[in-house]
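User: Now give one protein:

AI:
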Amino acid sequence: MATSGEGARVARPGAGGFVYSRRRPELGTLHRVVRENLRTLYAAAQDGFAGAALPPFVRQELEGYLDCGLLLHGFAHLECEDCHEHLLVAFSCRSRSFW
């Protein structure tokens, strides 16, 4: 396995030409903006900035987005039967409500 510029583990192409590269959502702009501003949003909502409370499902989706695709929240450990290289595949939250 090789490492890409973002530090993701990348498998060498096999007979089918497939290359897996972990998504690494924590490096993206949307993830950074949500992560850095979530408490501010919650505080503003609590102070009534829009005249209504933030619905619980919105909080659940935002917090779930921050956990989605991160190795520390669960992963599968795969091993190639031919070359015995190892790969970690992060579990996905499978939610597509906002993104």
Notes: The beta strands are 2-3, 9-10, 75-79, 86-90. The longest helix spans residues 29-46.
